[in-house]
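Objective 1.3, modelling of assemblies. Example input:
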Amino acid sequence: MIIRPRRNRVDANMRDLVQENNLTVKDLIAPLFVMEGENKREEIASMPGQYRFTLDLLLKKVAKLSDLGIPAVSLFPALPDSLKDERASESTNSNNILCQAVRAIKKQTPNMLVMTDVAMDPYSNDGHDGLVDKERGLILNDETLPILAEMAVNQAQAGADIIGPSDMMDGRVAYIRQALDHAGLHHVVIMSYTAKYASAFYGPFRDALESEPKMGDKKTYQMNPANSREAIRELYLDEQEGADILMVKPGLPYLDILKEMRETTTLPLAVYNVSGEYAMVKAAAANGWLDEEKVALEILMSFKRAGADMILTYFAEAAAKWLKK
Ligand code: PBG
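Predicted structure (tokens):
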């Protein structure tokens, strides 16, 4: 007798009955870039279809994403060099473009969840996520924490629902949690970039923000792509420090990490399908080498299968439309 797995694949209805995982618009978080000015959008050359928007146009985009059923956006500010300095001072300005965007989105579309990123790089003229000691060539850890905490409180006071520390400094989740609670912001969620690897897949994102590090690389704080046990160590620390949601980043090359984390924690898990993953699919599709819709949906489903509860992806809007068909 032959055992016949094909019986369960015989037609679409049977395949639906046995389907193990599902991808829906409710799983998606759309990253968006905001810049100062009016009525302008600039396409990011290495991320076709993704733009830096001025606030007025960003609001239109958010309204559209909301109509499509997307539950959350994640905001990143693209600042002119004139606003960048060594201490990322603009990040704690309550009227910076990011805080303006958070307030305007919550006013226009109150039920859209707004996530903001905590790290110094978009605001730093060093392009690093922490304070740089130039003489010694070091990224300072403990000196960075108060800056991150002040940045997080500033974003949360503007109305951010979810704070996303992406900086990979040690101890930052606990430090930020304490600062938020101290400011009466107990309700604000921390989605920690728990296992964030020192990855070349962030290239297009750094084009978008012009945030390429001026000196050295990020390997003293972001993780070595060769390591997986270290991700579990970071996971235990983020749990202890009070993170509400844990994230793995990038996505596709780190599905094994996602799966291991799923087996280790009871917390919700997010995955960041980063800029370089998006760029690869777009480039191949533009050449007619891959079917963009099918490939993108297959990648997004792979995250669900590996254990993600939510996915940050530049495909969010397109996927929402594809999933409606
Ligand atoms: C910065 C940050 C990065 C991304 C999100 N937050 C880049 C980096 O660490 O250099 C990358 C996102 C992407 O590539 O889509 N703290």
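Residues 117, 119, 121, 129, 166-167, 202, 205-206, 274-275 surround PBG (CB under 6 Å).
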